From TrEMBL:
Pfam families named in the record: DEAD, Helicase_C
PANTHER family, alphabetized: RNA HELICASE
Phylogenetic lineage: Eukaryota, Viridiplantae, Streptophyta, Embryophyta, Tracheophyta
Keyword rRNA processing: no
Keyword ATP-binding: yes
Domain of life: Eukaryota
Positions of the Helicase C-terminal domain: 569-723
Family named by the database record: Belongs to the DEAD box helicase family.
Protein name in UniProt: ATP-dependent RNA helicase
Any one GO molecular function term: ATP binding
Sequence ranges assigned to domain Helicase ATP-binding in this UniProt record: 352-535
Catalysed reactions listed for this entry: ATP + H2O = ADP + phosphate + H(+)
Amino acid sequence: MSWSVVLRERWKILSKISATLTAVRSMGGGPRTFPGGLNKWQFKRMHEKMAREKERRLLEQEKEVYQARLRSQIRVKVAGRSPAQGDEESSSAAAYGPMTASDHVKALADRFTKEGAEDLWNEDDGPLRDDPVPRNPAPSRTVPPLDLRKMMSDRCKVADGTAWRSRRPVETPGRRRQYSSDAGRKCRPKLGVKSKWYPDSDSDSDLDSDFGLEGDPVKPFQTGGTRNPKFPRVSSVNADLKEEEVAIRAEKKKKIMLSGAALMNHDRKKERRAPKPKAVEKEDSLDEEVECIRDELEKRKRDLAATVGQEVEEEALLTPRRFEEYSISPLTVKALTCAGYVQLTVVQDAALQTCLDGNDVLVKARTGTGKSIAFLLPAIEAVLKDATVGVNNRISPILALILCPTRELASQVAAEANVLLKYHNGIGVLSLIGGTRFKVDQQRLESDPCQIIVATPGRLLDHIENKSGFSLRLLGLKILVLDEADHLLDLGFRKDIEKIVDCLPRKRQSLLFSATIPKEVRRISQVVLKREHTFIDTVGLSSQETPPKVSQSYIIAPHTLHFEVVHHLLKEHIMQEANYKVIVFCTTAMVTQLTFALLHNLKMNAREMHSRKPQLYRTRISDEFRESKRLILVTSDVSSRGMNYPDVTLVLQMGVPCDREQYIHRLGRTGREGKNGRGIMLLAPWEEYFLDEIRELPIGKLPMPVLNPDAGEKVAESMGKVDMSIKEAAYHAWLGYYNSISQTGRDKTTLVELANRFSSSMGLQCPPALFRRTALKMGLKDIPGIRVRNS
Ligand SMILES: Nc1ncnc2c1ncn2[C@@H]1O[C@H](COP(=O)(O)OP(=O)(O)OP(=O)(O)O)[C@@H](O)[C@H]1O
């Protein structure tokens, strides 16, 4: 065999081997390593396991609390038995405590109603305040809040001469609130309706329910131990307690007292043993009273709505305190002064010192009142205090982590942080947000010595899971901030937040800020906060949650006319305001696209912003709108929270928001820094149910505007020019939205009707095939009168 043949054979073998090697080479640039030499999946599984364990631990802790509560109940009841009863068990049990159960209840009643018992009351059923007297109390309202309970008791005094003691302690001047609950806002007095007791709720709500805070206008106890004739004797309550005691003892004998099964039994919702009024005739008159008060309440609300534009509430945004009075770095004070911040706003004054002291804090304050600076200052101070700062580390630990729900908000917060760090060389801020290249983030993380990260949860988790060494950098974290905390702890984000928190050191400070903190968020806030955190609420029960100088109104109009009404309102506003700046909120990204296309065809100066747009475009539009005047931003809810666009003159909400909180945040884009503003919500008749959710807000009804037929034709013509694919996409998205949020949407027959109306308002013919496609997409089957199922 010649050499050339041998060479050719060898060449063939070599090329085969190289082809095989190419085929088995792993994709994505080789294996990634994680701390502890784990691969990506092992690392992910480890985190999931840790999360599961944490969940189990929390559950166990909760069980322990129930057990302890049960034990203490039994102890009180056993101690309540007098030795005179001759029961050996009771006499030995009496050693547990010196009081009988009824004495205990009476003493508590006395304690709660006496003056100076403020320390017993909680902030919005939260933990007891460390510092009950704030240095600068929120200025009082010009219009005093309507105290339903006080009115009730006053009326009752007049009616039958008996003095009913209100459960609400008297507001002491100089205090923000002695205690709080949602009672004032959510719970109208509902007589004859039993309120529920949830034994698994936190200790604070126990306090509420035990003392009938929820929905009860009056309290059964009186000072001095005298009994209100409307309520049964405490002894009848004791009889109930005794029965329960016997049942519990029987359970105990079976040795299942503290078993999971026993706990499950106590986990069930129980009807609270709220004392009922005895006299039926009094109940009737009481009903009348309540009706009367409701009417008065409605009237007051209407008056407030009518006059809100005329400075009903003159609350000052700034306090007399100045930043240099706090223990913050002089360089930061210099930067603050440079940016025009000299005095603190109310929320900054209320929260700053507590945050600087290193406590875990949950803060609620109205939109546009300066929460960002209130959490950025403690974050910067925490970084400055760390010994590693100033040391020339190539890769510095991440000391402060700020999480925001949207990319634009994260960029805005990072920009604000940079303003405050103007004179601090060596401290860096980096924003990690979705929609940008991961590689670019990695390079910036390696090249910039940043100690503060502002991130959206998804992208941060990406870095934790896919970038080796990133989790290690987080181990030195000193402070965690959740801006728009209620949204971040919402179902959409919660899993991500839990995963992130699992990667952070336990010994850290956590700050949660938002303009809305629903009760359920307070309960789950302990996913992030320590149990003994402080709750600061600068809004309070007595005040409205929306900006005081924003006039709020709604219009009910047939859906087929919505685009026409929007066009009319915008034209009218442009005529009235020379420097108009309007935000139009739409229900979904696709509906936003459609509305923008329509306004664009109508030659209005508008921009669009929603999640379907690339990040670069979104950033550009956001910056442009921040700087501009005489511009309309048509947007989805990506702009509803936290975005600080100065001098917005009108917020127009087209269609129902997904919940009450979203309404407040959308509206909060106007009237910032205590300025004037206007908010209009446009609803279809079937969306009126939403008004009930915001009934305590000063919102008034506007009549349906008189529409110009010529303008109507113009709108129809412009709608005709909009691309069919945009209309179809909006149609799908719109139906999906209503199907997911509203009761109406869940009624399939109504949904078909809505679909027809929506399609006609777009000039879409709604062919059955299109509706079938939508219905299938939404997982709907068997709609009466329509064959949805694919044959
Ligand atoms: N101490 C201050 N003095 C003057 N202006 C301030 C001060 N603090 C904040 N501001 C201004 O108040 C405006 C609103 O601030 P910020 O965006 O922090 O409000 P926010 O409470 O976070 O609102 P949202 O709830 O919508 O997120 C900003 O324009 C900011 O510059």
